[in-house]
Amino acid sequence: MRIALVSMPWQLLDVPSLALGILHGRVRDTRPQDGVTEFHEGLAWAEFLLERSGGGITPFAYTDVAEEGLPHGLGDWVFSGALYGDPDWRRDRLEAYAAEQGIGIGHVLAMRAHADAFVASCTERILAAAPDVVGFTTTFMQNVPSLAVARRIKEARPGVLTVMGGANCDGPMGEALHRNHGFVDFVVRGEGELAFPALLDHIDRGTDPAEVNGVCWRDGPRAVANPQAEAVVPPRSIPAPDFDQWRRALDTSAVRPYVEPKLVLESARGCWWGEKHQCTFCGLNGSYMEFRSKSPDQVWEEVAGLVERHRILDIIMVDNIIDMEYFKRLLPRFAESGWDLRVHYEVKSNLKKSQVELLADAGVLHIQPGIESLGSRALQIMDKGVSGGRNVRLLRDSQTHGLTVSWNYLYGFPGESDADYLDVLGQVSALVHLQPPGGASRIALERFSPYFERPELGMDRRSPSVVYGHVYDLPESELEDLVYLFDTPERGIAGPVEEWLHEAVRYWQAAHPVSRLEIAAEAPEELVLRDRRCGWPARDHRLDGWQALAYRLLDQGRTLKALGAELHARGRPIPGDRLGDWAADLYARGLVFKDGDTYVALATEGGPVRVGAADGALAAEPV
């Protein structure tokens, strides 16, 4: 058979589609007689926009929609007119929504004008490959673009079979997608490595896939949804992705000068923390929380093979959480390779300083640690299993070792109060030398999250997000099964405290580039802390004798009682009131973070050079 595998917009331009790479590998391994042609239509759409707009709509505008458009349904809306055959499809609804939300949509409106022509072009190119089966991978905003092309394919050549799969097809979403769109012949719900080749076998034989787990199919006019597999796909059945066709498409693309390509790989699935305590707001693992990982040897072989083949050193690992065994058996191999790797990993935020150092040595220079908050009670509500002080320690240690940390400050949890935020907000000015959050966001209600699955946790009233109203021509009863994001009455902080949180984050972001607090000199009985933080007097803080030792002991975070006991054990007994006065003075000078009764040292041990940061000043007032 001839198979077309398609990744529609809004796949990021600088990385290949991991789903296409893996499925191509599985088809190659299980059905070597089949021919596979990939269509990387994110690249094609960015090229199309650049050409048709005379350079006015650049790949940067594409990336803006791809990275920021999901909460507002912008990427799907661009193609909804092409899906429903109306270039003005619910434009009035989007414009009203954008005005209410205060977001700009000029570039989105400009893109919509070219969407129908692109769908026609995309359909023509796919059909030119004479496929028997066209498979679409769909995640986040790929639904409507995929549906628009699938519809055109079916209208132009009814004998071509269309298949959809991916994260947007998990659970009831895939069943709703199938029953509401008759031009989609099959939907694969859940993991596809086993189901997709099995479905192809049935298509080849002309038999119904009644026993293939997770597949939605049609028995005459009746839509049938097979139960999803209960067992997860074992790592040995997840091949190294095949990125050859993506690389050729990128290298010949007009978009190539705009991007710095990266490889995207997967070393584990599921979440080992979520198996024990799923974070209350997180639905990213969908139906399959069970954690499983590839062996360190298998991961290294995949990384080494793809790096050598494509000569690309930037690698994004899409694991939801790193396997802690990799600190022993994988990361040292990265470090020993001698390659200038630049790797991204998602990690848990309770890493030790030695583990942060190992990440840096291994070339893992970008981490997403799921910090979410610096307030311990908010973190407890989330079931994160860490404290605010522990998160501050990770920010400090990451700054020391030059790791870039991506995180967002989340709020809006049922049961939180103003008091859970006020103490942290009062300390933000002391933290400006550490990496700030990308923003402050009220949590969304995601399908598969505990808040969604267990309404008794506090989000018992919900409806499909209003953004789907300007995307789909479906009743709410169908949207309830189809969509991922839901609206619910706001919980938690609001008013002045919410506003203060946003102001604090903006100040932190502005002050960080010109702020430093670091250990400038160290001796057995002396510490010198160089303070060049925005909003604080430029000065050097000298700690002598027991104070130098005590500050080092606060590196891991300690209560004053524990600190006093440790000093006593080291032959430096200090009266409790004196220790309390000293800690209060450190706090007043912004040299420690206070999390309840725990104090955490804030000075970094050096860190990356930031131009102008040494003695820079910022025209901003501390919050």
Can you tag this structure with a few keywords?
Arc Repressor Mutant, subunit A, 7-stranded mixed sheet, alpha/beta, 5-stranded parallel sheet, disordered C terminus, 623 residues, 25 strands
**Head-to-tail CA distance between termini:** 64 Å
Number of strands: 25
> How big a fraction of the residues is strand?
15-25%
Instruction: Show unreliable segments.
Output: 611-622
Average pLDDT level: 95
The Cα radius of gyration reads 26 Å
Specify the helix fraction band.
25-40%
Summed up, the helix count is 24
**Mass-distribution shape:** globular
The strand order across the widest sheet is: 2-1-3-4-5-6-7
Main sheet makeup: 7 strands, mixed
Derived structural class: alpha/beta
Assembly state of the chains shown: single chain
Structural account:
This protein has 623 residues and is α/β, with parallel strands linked by helices. Among the domains are: 2-232; 514-601, Orthogonal Bundle (Arc Repressor Mutant, subunit A), CATH 1.10.10. Helices cover 40% and strands 16% of the residues. The protein has 24 helices and 25 strands. A 7-stranded mixed beta sheet has the order 2-1-3-4-5-6-7, sandwiched between helices. Strands 8-11-12-13-14 form a 5-stranded parallel beta sheet. α1 (18-30) links the parallel β1 and β2. The longest helix has 23 residues, at 106-128. Residues 611-622 have low confidence and may be disordered.
